[in-house]
Amino acid sequence: MGTFVMPSLGADMAAGTLVEWLKQPGDTVEHGDIIAVVETDKGAIEVEVFEKGRIDELLVEAGSAVPVGTPLARIDGEANGVKPSATGPAKPKVGTEPVRATPPRPSALLVMKGQGPRASPAARQHAAERGIDLASLAGSGPDGAIQLVDVERAECIRSEPGLGSGPDLSAMRRAIAAAMARSKREIPHYYLSHRFDLSAALEWLERYNAERPPPERLLLGALQIKAVASALKEFPEFNGFYGEEGFSPFPAVHLGTAIAIRGGGLAAPCIRHTDTLTLSDLMESLRDLVARTRRGQFRSSEIADATATVSNLGERGVESLWPVIYPPQVAIVGFGSVMWRPWAVKDEPVVRPVITTTLAGDHRANNGHRGALLLRRIEQILSEPDKL
Amino acid sequence: MTYQEARSIVIEEIENIAPDVAPVAIGDTEDVREALDLDSMDIYNLIAALHKRLEIDIPDKDAAQFVTIGGAARWLDEYTARQ
User: Fold this and answer.
1) What pTM was estimated for this model as a whole?
2) Alpha carbon distance B38, B17 (integer Å)
3) pLDDT in tens, A300-334
4) Range of A256's domain?
5) DSSP labels for A218-243?
6) A88 pLDDT more than 80
7) Which of B13, B24, B38, B41 to mutate to test the interface with A (most CBs of A within 10 A)?
8) By Cβ atoms counted within 10 A, which residue in A99, A115, A153, A156 is the most buried?
9) Domain boundary among A17, A49, A76
């Protein structure tokens, strides 16, 4: 008999709201199955189960906010012994708040650290169902908490077209705030910058794309991610996690990629075994990941497993960025926008597409000398794109 | 395909790719990356969607024309006129 508990989906997460059960008592589950949707500071996240068996009983009702570690379901590991499942809805056992509580009142759940926007569960559910961004609302409840009535009022006056449902940007903003504040508080960052000629990669990309139909083409971002992942493989002190015991390098590179979400959201889920993928597989994974992230459908493990991160400003950004490490990682690589600039080739000034790449490193785990070699290696990899 | 037909298709596909934006609210010559906050992945997806829906090849060198609704509609209009 196993117990499925509210997972910790990040160092700053103290609690989560069980939004939806995707499995019911009697269902069999395999390792890696999505069992529930949990709302955290990082938005709604699909949670996987790492056990094989049959769901015996659901211990927490959808809509409940519970601390990390709270048992959520009992899973019978003996899948052959079919036991009668609980009849009727599962009885909530722990720290629950009725979804349709009227009127919503402040409770300990609302002020728990890392709990997300100050909103009642009823307001939150109502807003989620109608695609209303809680961040856009003013709360009329105690301490400015958003109540059901606030959401209903917003619904009446909402006239903007095209507002779809997506990740909870207000919760996401809090997640960014918590993670970045912790990063700046705890991580002794150092920064390096390197500007180089990107002609070879861009010319290669142009030739590659010219021969292929639209769905098989690549974006520069895929080359950048592959180059960083390949370089990290050679610099293990930049790839892994910093914990109580200090730094632990991780054998595989699961590179997180910062994905901007219109309206101000940001998340950095990872692509697994990034360095081993072909460019076309990597592009496919990236397309899928961006699409899911913007719908708020990335998985818990995609955030928690990232071993390092890349942040790319894209084509409309500025020349360089000074990224902030996402703890417990120890490095983040940034790419500014490609800029056409005067460039010296031998003795002659020419105009070339140049890019500035930056590294923020955690000085507890690595140092600037090796960081410089890492950035030079990224340049070298991108200057020989046919080897990617 | 007329310019107006092409324009409607482009707007529809932008709405499919980015359900949270309102392409009908912007002008034909506005850069959708600025006006709607679309990025290179969105433009990539737009061209792939038009390729699939209309069963036409859109050369990568013409991709830059697809950053405005008018540019995309004109390209599609001229392409069908050539066929």
Assistant:
1) 0.69
2) 10
3) 789 889 999 999 988 888 999 999 999 999 999 99
4) 188-387
5) --HHHHHHHHHHHHHHH-GGGSEEEE
6) no
7) B41
8) A115
9) A76
How far does B30 lie from chain A, in Å, by closest CA? 15
User: CA-CA distance, A199 to A208, in Å (whole number)?
Assistant: 14
- State the Cα–Cα distance between residues A129 and A145, nearest whole angstrom: 19
| CATH number for position B48 | 1.10.1200.10
Q: Tokens representing A294?
A: 């913007």
Q: With DSSP H G I counted as helix, E B as strand and the rest as coil, what are the percentages for chain A, rounded to 5?
A: 30, 25, 40
Task: Please identify which residue in the block is written with the tokens 């590659």.
Answer: A208
Which residues from chain B sit within 8 angstroms of residue A212, using beta carbons? 60
**Yes or no, beta carbons of A262 and B60 under 8 Å apart:** no
Query: For B63, which residue in chain A has the nearest alpha carbon?
Result: A214
Among the partner-chain residues A160, A213, A221, the one whose CB lies closest to the CB of B57 is: A213
- Check: complex ipTM more than 0.95: no
Average pLDDT on A163-176 reads 74
| CATH (domain of A231) | 3.30.559.10
Domain final position from A76, A98, A131: A76
Nearest to B61 among A164, A210, A221 (CB): A210
* Min Cα–Cα distance to chain B from A183, Å: 28
Indicate the DSSP class of residue A85: P
- Mean pLDDT throughout A284-292? 95
